[in-house]
Specification:
The model has no long low-confidence stretch (mean pLDDT about 95). Helix content is about 20%, strand content about 10%. By secondary structure, the chain is an alpha+beta fold. Strands 1, 2, 3 and 4 form a four-stranded mixed beta sheet that branches. The chain is globular and about 45 Å long. The protein binds iron/sulfur cluster (SF4) (2 copies). Belongs to the UPF0260 family. InterPro entries: Puta_zinc/iron-chelating_dom, UCP006173. This is UPF0260 protein NE535_00555. It comes from Shewanella holmiensis.
């Protein structure tokens, strides 16, 4: 049931919308935006609630109590979230692309995503241990594989 190929984002049920998230964890990385050029840089410094092994939030239901700035991705704010990685399922569908071959909705698990290097698994450091974000700029979150 490849519902994302037949159902527009705006017509998806909340369950379908939620299932689009591959759980890569990239959106939980700290990012830097250059004030002058507006260029976006990813760092490997992850939100302190992110589990680097499962790539999941340790306090997802109550995360806003701990991280008020955490973002809920919705149909309304999706066009503005230009910091989402190219590999993000929401971004892919929003710009007219398909889901990648490694997406959990297609493979049935997160394994292929991890193997393709498309998640943050075992690649992050806790933001609490980072002094200067600039020192932690990385390029791997920008990679995208179909
Ligand atoms: S980057 Fe997109 S697909 Fe990956 S965890 Fe965040 S919202 Fe989900
Ligand atoms: S609070 Fe949870 S979902 Fe939000 S950025 Fe942190 S780890 Fe990610």
């Amino acid at each position: 049931m490849r519902f994302w190929e037949t159902t527009a984002l705006k017509d998806m049920t909340s369950e379908q919308w939620e299932s689009l998230c591959d759980g890569c964890g990239k959106c939980c990385l700290n990012k830097i935006i250059d004030d002058e050029t507006e260029e976006l840089y990813y760092t490997n410094a992850a939100c302190h609630l992110l589990d680097d092994d499962s790539c999941q939030c340790r306090r997802y239901p109550e995360r806003f109590n701990y991280v008020p700035e955490c973002t809920v991705i919705s149909l309304e704010n999706l066009p503005e979230l230009n910091w989402l990685p190219d590999s993000c399922a929401y971004r892919r569908l929003f710009v007219g692309r398909d889901l990648p071959s490694w997406h959990p909705l297609i493979t049935g698990s997160k394994e292929a995503m991890h193997l393709a290097g498309m998640s943050v698994k075992a690649k992050t450091v806790n933001e609490m241990k980072v002094r200067y974000l600039d020192d932690n700029i990385v390029l791997w979150p920008l990679q995208d594989v179909d």
